[in-house]
Structures are given as C-alpha cells and as structure tokens.
## 1
Amino acid sequence: MDRRKFLGSLSALSAGAVPTVLHAQVGPPTVDPVEKDIPSKSPTIALNHLGFRPHVGRKVLLVRAVNKDQPREYTLRVVGSSNFHFTRELKLTQGDLGACLMADFSDFNRPTVYPAIYQINVGHEYSVPFFICEDVWRRTLPRSVGYYRYQRCGVDVPGVHPICHLDDARRRDNGEHVNVIGGWHDAGDLRKWMDPTMLNAIALLNLVRNIPNPQPGDVTHEYILDEVRHGNRYFLKMQDTDGRIWHDVAGGVNGDNSDNHWTDNIVGTADDRYINVTKLEHISAMFATLQAMVGQIYGPSDSAYARLCLRAGVRAWNGSARKGSTLDCAWWCMAACELFRATKQKEYHTAAISLGRRLMARQATTYLADQHQIRGYWTDYGKGPAGSASSTGVPYFSVVYPAMPAYALLELYDAFPDAEDRPRWKDAVRMHLDEFVIPLAERNPYHLIPSGLYLGRPSPETYRPLAGRLTYRYFMPVRKQWFWLGIDSNLENNALMAARFALITKDDPGGGKQYADLAYRQLEWVMGGNPFGACLMTGEGMRNPYPHSRFVGLIPGGIMNGIAGNAEDEPVLDQAYTFHWRTNEYWSPHVAYYLWSVSTLENFS
Ligand SMILES: [Zn+2]
C-alpha cells in the first residue's frame, strides 16, 4: 500500500466514534454509561502483558492506527541493558475493530540463563514490560487458583471476611430450612450459583490432570484438592432426593439482588437467604461430571470420599432422562466420559456414543441460511421450528459455554480410543474450527473470536454481515436483552477447545500449531493485548480496571467479565471507576477457563 492509500485508510477509523443512541426493545430505555467509554484516550499499543513462550504461540504486537502521523516502526529492547535492541517495520492490517499496525516477532528468541524482561516502544509510547520465557503463563496459575480461597463461603477467610452465611438457606417453595452452608461466592457478589461454581471445581481437577507432576513454583495437588473439597461440601448438599440438582442459593427471589447480602448467621431470622429448587438438565450433568472426576482423582488419598461422591454422580445420571438442548447434550457427553472413566461400565460407553451422535446431528454441516461459505457451527435444538436442529439452523449461543459442544466431542475422543465414531468426532471439530471459528477470527487484527452468530438482525443495532442471512457480533447485543456483559468466558472457553484440539492434532501435518496460536490470542486479549491495553486479571499486568467486587474488593487472580460492546459492536470497558458490573465484575467461569486452558496449553510444545 502506498502512503496516500494508507493515509486515506486512516480517515475511516472508528477509534473515536460516538455511539448512536438506539431505543432498547427489552430492558431499560437509557443508554448504559459504560457504552460511552470509548478507547479514545487509551494507549495505542496492544500487547499481552505477561509475555510469550519462546517457541509456542505467535509473538504479535498491534498498534491501533489512530492518526496519519504515527511511526511505522517499533523498537524492542531488553530492559536493564543498553546493548541489545532491534528496530523493525510495522505493517498496516485492516479488518473489524479498527485498522492496526502489526508486527510479528515470533522469530525472536534470545536464550538467556535467567528470563529477560523486554519492552517495545513505538515513537514516544512504551509497552508494558513483558517476559519471554517458557513458564510465562504457567507461573500465573497459583494466583488464579488462589482466587477461590477469597470466595469461600461458610468459613472465616483471614484478611478477607469473617465466617459467613451459616444460615443458608430456606427453600423458596415451602420455606423449609436446609443446610447448604459452604461453597464459593460466585462473582463480585455473595450469591452461590451452581453451574458456574461447579465449573470452578471441574476446571481445578482438570488442572490436576494437565499438570500431573507439579514442579517447584506450581500450586500443589494437595492445595487444589482441599479447595475442591471445600466447594463440593456445598454441591453435595444441593442434590435433591430424586438425584437432580437445585439451581442456586441466594440467586435473588425474583431475578433481583434481594439475597445478595451478608447475614446474621442465625437460622430462622428475617435475613435468611433462599434456595432456588429449580432443576435444570445441564446443572445435573455438570454435577455428574464433577462427582465422577472426584471419584477418580480422590481415590488414592480418600477412597471413602471418592466412592461417596461417585455414588452422588451416578444418582444425578440416573435421575435424568438426559434430553434437552445442545448445551445439555454437551454436558451429558462430558458426564458419560467421566462416569465411564470412573466405573468402566458399558452403560456409559453406550450412552456416550449415542450422546455424541445427537451432538453431531446439531452441527450445521451443510451451508444454511442462503450462503455457501460458513458451516460447522452448532445449532440450538428446541429453539427453532420443529424438525432436526441442523435443518432449522438457529445458531447455538452461550456466552459462558460457547465451545462446550465441540469440547465435549474432544472429551469423547480421549475417553473412547477404540470407538467407531472417533474419526467423526475429530472431523466435526476440525470443521468447526477451520470453516467457522478461524475464518471469523481472521476478520479482525486481534483474531478475536466473535461471541455470537445470528440470522439477520434480531434487534435494532449493528450485526455485522457475514454471508447470506448469517450475521455476527464480537460482543453481546445490548438492545436484544437486559443481560449483556463482557466476553472473557467466550474467549477462554474457545481457547480451551482450540488448545485441546491442538494437542489432539499435534502429530498431524501442520502439528496443530495454528490452533495453539488461536488459543493464545484469546488469552492475550484478556491479559492486555486489547484496544485498551488493560489486563483484566487483578495482580497481573497493568492498567487493571478496578473490579466490581463490592463486598471484598480486590481479589488477586480474579478475572473481570471483560470488554463488552456498544450498539455498534465496538469495544467498551469501564476504566472510570463507575463500578460497572457488565465489564468489571469478577466471575468464576473466567478464572475456571483461564486455569483450565492455560494448563492444557502447557502440554503443547
Ligand atoms: Zn458467604
């Protein structure tokens, strides 16, 4: 591109755009304050604040192209030494989320006895210092695991809060008191949702599997197993007599915040919180998955506890017909894998194959919605007209579990090495990544994976055209429903799935490297490689926004909901201390997927 064309391209940048106010169809009519916080005053350098592994993942620097006078080169130097540096060219890259000047210094590796810390400057702007060393991600894991200690409920957590919620809780339906003390507070509040907090335990036990031989500096298995056992005391109490699992404690009686408070710890007084006794399929499936994992992993150290938990998991399995949505099906696949691993019983093998076929039937393997470019995404059973999910083609959406349908097939792939369907499971995920996820991620310089695929324009705001009737948004719609928030779990769950596929394809032509690269790019966005230059984990990196955590304040290792979008699908983040929950609240799934995906990637070399 010549200089004239380059200058012309900058005039169309959206970095300083002011969102147009549109009227909401659902929810409050006013524009949320966080939508107005546009990155005009942010740094232009977007670089992962942790740094890079020497030989795994690309080393990418992005500079937001905001004006025509920006330097077109960058200099990398080692901090604390004047004798090493190099200067290279930046290249313009166009795409969604604004044009960027990009550098790829993946070839740069400088063997040193001790990890060296580097810094990049572009003109007068300096990046956050970063390391290049093998354990640059791994050494953050103790901090993210430590997050859960701060969230413990029902015990005294020294330095955080005194003993709490010994009066949890009374049933919403009949007022009966049931002892459901314990567990973890789920987020920046004091509520105890079951599915996201069980995800914590599932992720922690996967961390144990992913790092079977901890080294000095790693968190010990003993510490992790103690943490999971704390959470599980609560989970076990939430199982009803029919084997199925209650939904939450203190979630709010009418979808509100009425139970989100400290209590007097005395049963029977007015401030007692409520148990939501609703029973959902995917929550039962997650419970069965978790208890079957406990049944395996605690066996050597506490066989009685392992057997007790496994029996609870089997009751959850038997208490359900295992029907339901795409998400339900994915988690029942996970449960079947773990119950088979725990028991070796044929019943779970047979069920797993059947569930896998149901899950694959919900993948769009043909070109739907009047287009011939994109396929491989999952559809949501039950939300479209009658008929099979894949023929109706309503794209599956979940901001917390977006990659679980694909991930569940990879779990099957590992659990059943002799299954006839095994090549089909792998091919299905390859199609999902190669023909859906990667083509969409490559539409922006950050390789950010969009959070939603849609048919047409479901609400009056920007849906980016893709092909035919297919549209997409990087961030959740803000005019479609009241509940919208940052997309860290979308990125991290996808990172986990891509990381697992990278391991499975490590010996294939290409070596799975592109999938590991994709996984790291999602994690890098969370850890500072974003348009705000803000690290979204407390205690790592710089420019961390203050979290929405109004009961205990800062939690080291806590990850905020992250960058959301406005009506124009441009990124927004509260950096003005307005305590905005949509972007700044801690939430368990982000930490769970972080430690699960990072530890998975540790096995890719
Ligand atoms: Zn509590």
## 2
Amino acid sequence: MSKINPLAEALNKDLQDGAPQIFDMLSTRGKSIYFPSKGILGQTAESKGAKINATIGTAFEEDGSPLALECMEAMVNVPSESFLYASSFGVQRLREEWGRLLAVKNPGLQGKTYSLPVVTAALTHALSVSGYMFVDSGDTMILPDLYWDNYDLVFSEAYGAEFSFYNTFSGGGYDVEAFSQALRANRAGKKIVLLNFPNNPTGYTVTEEEAKALTVSIRQAAEEGNQVVVLLDDAYFGLVYEEGIARESLFSHLVDLHPNVLAVKLDGPTKEDYVWGFRVGFMTFGFRGAGDKHLKALENKAAGIVRGNISNVPNLSQSILLKGYTAPEYSAQKKQKYEILSSRARKIRAVLEKHPEYAQSYEIMPFNSGYFMCVKPIGVTAEAVRKELLTNFDTGVIVLSGLIRLAFSSVPTDRIEELFENLHAAIQTLRR
Ligand SMILES: Cc1ncc(COP(=O)(O)O)c(C=O)c1O
C-alpha cells in the first residue's frame, strides 16, 4: 500500500480510537482517502471574508457578486450564489434539512445518533462512493437475486466485488431465512450487505415483521463476531402503498443496533421528490456507540471521495431542493404525487382481480411499493414476450432475471388495464 497521507492517518486514528471495528470495515482505498482540508479548499475557507481574496478558481464581478451571464441568471429563480461551487460535503443547509427530514420521515430515528448526510451526485454515485469506501477487489457482497442491474457496474466492474446471491422470495414474502444463511455462511469476518426497499425490479418492501426479522438476523451475525456493513439503497423511500409494510427505512433499526453493524443510508430526491435529472443524493452513517469524531471521520472520507471524483455536486440542484423543502406547499404537493402512483398500484390490483384468467399467462410477483412490479410469464420466455409486446402490441417493457418488469410509475392509470390485457394476449399468441 502506498504511503498514507497524514490527513487520512488522522481520520483513521479518530476511528481507531473507540471504533476500531469500523476502521476495519473500510477498504484499502477507504483507509487511504481523506478530505484535503489543508489544500485549496482549506486555504480558501480560511481566507473567507478577506478584503482581497485571490484563492479559489471562481470569478466575481467588480462589485463582488458572482460573475454570471445574465441570460443564464434570468432562467433560474435562485440566488446567483448557486452558480458558484458547492462544498464537496454538499450545501450545509441542505445537509441539515435532509438530516432533519430523515427523522420526520422515520420517527424511529428521533433521538438517535447519525452523521450529517454527505451530498452525492444522486444514488448511483452514493453507491459508487460506498464501493470506494468499503469494497476491496474480491470482497463478497450479499444481495438478493432480484436486484438493480447497475450494481454489476458499480460494484463488480468498478471495485471487483463478488456477489453472493440469496433467494429473494419464499411463500409470497421475503426469504429472510435465505438472507440469514447467506449472511452467516463462511467464517466470521467483514460482511457487506446491500438491501434495497422498495426494491427495483420487484416493487417489494418487507413487511414490518420481515423488517424485524432481518434486523434480528443482522444482530445475531454481529454478536457472532461479524463486522457487517449494511448498505441501504433507499432510492424509492416513502412510496409504500399497502398496510403492514415497513414505512420506515431499516436505518431506524440498524443505526444503534450493535457496534459491529455500520448502517449506511443511501437516499435522495431522485425518485422520492421526482427530480431524476437533478443528480442529488445523500449518504448517512450510523452505528451503536458512534461518537461525533467517528461520524465526522466517515463524512470526511466520503467528501474526500466526492472531491476526487466529481469535486462537488451541482449547486443549482441543491439550491432548488433546499427552496423546495422549505416551501409551504411542499408536503401537500408531494402527497398528491404519491396518490397518483398509489392509485396506479390499486388499479393493478383491481385489474388482476377482475381477470383471474391472466393467471394462466403469468404469475404476479409480490409487490407493494415503489415504481415497479414484475410478472413471470408461463410457458414462454420473458424475452419472447417483450419482443411480441413491442412488435404487435405497441407496448414496451423490461426483461430482468427472467421476469418482465412493468414500470407502472410511467403508465397513465387509464392505460393499465390495456397493459395487462396486452401481456395476456401476447403470451397466449406465443403459446399458440
Ligand atoms: C434501486 C435503485 N437504486 C439507485 C438508483 C439510481 O438512482 P439515481 O438516479 O439517483 O442515481 C436507481 C435508479 O433506477 C434504482 O432503481
């Protein structure tokens, strides 16, 4: 390993003092990374307010306001300060607001200790930063066999992770037993778990009971001496449509579960607030016994990775979000949009009830949340159905892991019946 920078050494020392198990969870890169607080950024921060400030590479008008083209400025209703760089940690007020909202959206987090969220360029980047921080080449990651296929690029291709899959469903619910077995297979040591609820591609979120059972299983693994990094991909957080389904992130359960469990919450407004192109996400850390300096060390490492990858996340997007979250209409409008997606999920249930004959063509996989649901075609391949739907029914769907994924998030409610009818007809045609 090349020589460790003294700034990284200082962060590592902070972790080793009281949380050596968390230090051990870091990858080699994670151990080496640091936030360059003494470089351009640190010197710029120290010079803030100086009469003559010739530090960072941004430009200012003669009057000291950000130098911006008026035609660009006229297009956005946010202060021209948002044309300047944001911090590599993210806009401080947005970090604080998201951190506050976490506890509002997850009442179980109230009074618990977790880091200030670090801003990433949306969820994919947050996942990638996690890979940098925790995954060494050859490390095993434990995930369900129905998963978002971009994990292949993010973790396997970029960081050399080996995936250990467990069966996703059993008897119409989450296969918690398979998860437990995968987690406790092999000898005790560092384990990296990736959980995603609501799930892409299935649209499944664990029930309250299953969430508890997953938590028990993770605690047992920790008690047996495993050091468990739990990455929570909460991209579709909040979009739960049925009763008895976990409404809170598993983060609420894991954040103070055991010193050997590091919970890393990856979330953001992309899907939650319907701003796919904004490219803003968050990464929040917590573990039982975490002290301020431990959490700060993790935040510094994450921000150092952001600095070395993309430098910082668009300030414009962050400024718009901050304004949105503090707008009086925000909650009501968000509820309204949730209702649109929720009513589509209800419509799907109604259509399937009305047409029991569709069960001859496809099996409905468990779903209760998110943007998607999956069906398993009977007697024909998913790919053949996809092509048939596109060629003869003017209908586009996705094939993943032998299933057909339907993004009901993008289908108007009055086209849902037709979508399921087309699926049935396409399969019947292929089987003839
Ligand atoms: C499970 C899951 N995680 C992460 C992402 C990526 O989100 P973002 O667009 O914020 O990078 C997606 C997007 O499809 C997703 O389905």
